[in-house]
């Protein structure tokens, strides 16, 4: 596509929108329009790029565009997106845009419902240990792929290694995107409102290997029965490597050690990350990195040193014998269940946020270590009372929730922020929510 002759619309400013616009301009595109629901922030840069900035209206979406770059936060089932696609307009996300124009790179793409961020971060640490400055991390966490392409000049340089967290929203609008190594961590209910149905959500995840070649590899979690079902619906076009916490596999946990191809990688006591779920994250990341040439000694060194990522069961502080954990990344019930499995007693659980409508039935089975549930925000009352009925405490916002938790907590207890839902009722992101929680705790 000769971009200098194309009329291009970018929906949503954010970091990914700006990165897409900068890459489009670098590639010669000059007829660029950005539409945004909120006030425009990067006005000086947008002016330098010659971008026309317009509010989001029906008139904008009714125009005939040659190409549309959609912010992943815009649901693919949105009527105006469906209408544009029905009119033959190509709608993609910046992930696809970056992939189309960069030189060939080694991509390890990681998706799934839970564990993506820890696994992607760990995969990057493995790659960085071996390949140094030729290793990068981004996608759905931190740095958009278009930004990586510009910063590392991947339009001209090839053979770099990219650990890429990729969401269902980004996968929904790929066309040719291909990863050399891919993984679906697990499949549990989430984003039903965004994708239109649970079936659509699960199927969108399988697109991570849709364009794989036979020499590529998929890291398969053979412990997940739902993933097995969807791999049967959409069979792999490439080879696979298995990982398991329950049975012998290409990479597995035998109860005492993590093994890779039958050889000990590390002993359990050498792993600093809390919770059995993190063993799965390590196995996926290590298997993918190993496929990309990272030697065992580098895998071992990184595993022994790695302490986790921000906002995922992140230890914040201990006050009078009470430990505070930030699990703001717990944006669905399965993520919160995973967090709860990391503790055995005395948990004061803070839940609430944007109302996704997710049922709490499954989560009720894992409330054994919980002594108190405090609900806050738009969905706090519904979630907390669905979990424990009249025993729930309801407050307005997170500062009130933390202060009330402090009153309930005794030495040996744990105050856990694991909201079970997204942050968009009171915060712009789970990161902002997590940072606020840590600021509140550190001010106690």
Note the main attributes of this structure.
444 residues, alpha/beta, nine-stranded mixed sheet, six-stranded mixed sheet, 17 helices, 21% strand, globular
Strand runs, count: 20
What is the residue-mean pLDDT, rounded to a whole number? Answer: 94
Identify the strand order in the major beta sheet: 7-8-6-9-10-11-12-13-14
**Mass-distribution shape:** globular
The number of helical runs is: 17
Question: What is the first-to-last residue Cα distance?
Answer: 57 Å
As a percent range, the share of strand residues is 15-25%
The Cα radius of gyration reads: 22 Å
- Provide the low-confidence segments as ranges: none
Helix content: 25-40%
Biggest beta sheet summary:
9 strands, mixed
Main structural class: alpha/beta
Describe the structure.
The chain is of the alpha/beta class and 444 residues long. The chain contains 17 helices and 20 strands. Helices cover 35% and strands 21% of the residues. A nine-stranded mixed β-sheet has the order 7-8-6-9-10-11-12-13-14. Strands 15-16-20-17-18-19 form a six-stranded mixed β-sheet, with helices on both faces. Helix 11 links the parallel strand 10 and strand 11. The longest helix has 16 residues, at 116-131. The mean pLDDT is 94.
Q: What's the gist of this structure?
A:
With 444 residues, this protein is an alpha/beta fold.
């Amino acid at each position: 596509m000769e971009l200098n002759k194309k009329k291009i619309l970018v929906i949503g400013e954010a970091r990914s929108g700006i990165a897409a616009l900068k890459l489009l301009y670098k590639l010669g595109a000059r007829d660029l329009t950005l539409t945004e629901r909120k006030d425009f922030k990067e006005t000086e840069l947008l002016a330098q790029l010659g971008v026309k900035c317009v509010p989001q209206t029906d008139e904008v979406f009714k125009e005939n565009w040659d190409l549309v770059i959609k912010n992943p936060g815009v649901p693919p089932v949105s009527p105006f997106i469906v209408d544009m696609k029905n009119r033959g307009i190509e709608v993609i996300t910046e992930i696809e845009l970056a992939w189309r124009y960069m030189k060939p790179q080694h991509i390890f793409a990681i998706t799934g419902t839970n564990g993506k961020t820890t696994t992607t971060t760990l995969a990057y640490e493995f790659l960085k240990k071996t390949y140094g400055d030729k290793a990068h991390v981004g996608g759905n966490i931190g740095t958009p792929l278009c930004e990586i392409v510009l910063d590392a000049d991947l339009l001209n340089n090839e053979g770099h290694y990219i650990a890429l967290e990729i969401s269902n929203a980004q996968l929904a609008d790929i066309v040719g995107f291909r990863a050399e190594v891919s993984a679906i961590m697990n499949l549990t209910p989430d984003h039903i409102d965004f994708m239109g149905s649970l079936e659509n959500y699960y199927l969108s995840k399988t697109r991570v290997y849709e364009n794989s070649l036979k020499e590529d590899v998929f890291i398969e979690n053979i412990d997940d029965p739902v993933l097995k079902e969807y791999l049967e619906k959409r069979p792999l076009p490439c080879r696979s490597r298995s990982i398991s916490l329950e049975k012998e596999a290409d990479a597995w946990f035998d109860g005492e050690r993590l093994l890779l191809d039958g050889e000990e990688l590390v002993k359990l006591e050498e792993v600093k990350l809390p919770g059995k779920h993190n063993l799965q994250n390590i196995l996926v990341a290590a298997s993918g990195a190993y496929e990309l040439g990272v030697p065992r000694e580098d895998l071992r060194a990184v595993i022994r040193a790695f302490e986790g990522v921000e906002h995922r069961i992140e230890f914040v502080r201990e006050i009078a014998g009470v430990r505070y954990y930030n699990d703001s990344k717990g944006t669905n019930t399965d993520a919160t269940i995973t967090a709860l499995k990391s503790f055995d007693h005395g948990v004061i659980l803070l839940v609430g946020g944007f109302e996704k409508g997710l049922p709490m039935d499954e989560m009720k089975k894992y409330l054994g270590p919980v002594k108190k549930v405090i609900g806050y925000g738009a969905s706090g009352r519904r979630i907390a009372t669905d979990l424990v009925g009249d025993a729930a405490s309801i407050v307005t916002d997170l500062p009130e929730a933390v202060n009330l938790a402090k009153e309930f907590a005794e030495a040996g207890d744990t105050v856990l922020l694991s909201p079970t839902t997204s942050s968009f009722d009171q915060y712009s992101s789970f990161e902002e929510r997590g940072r606020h929680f840590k600021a509140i705790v550190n001010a106690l």
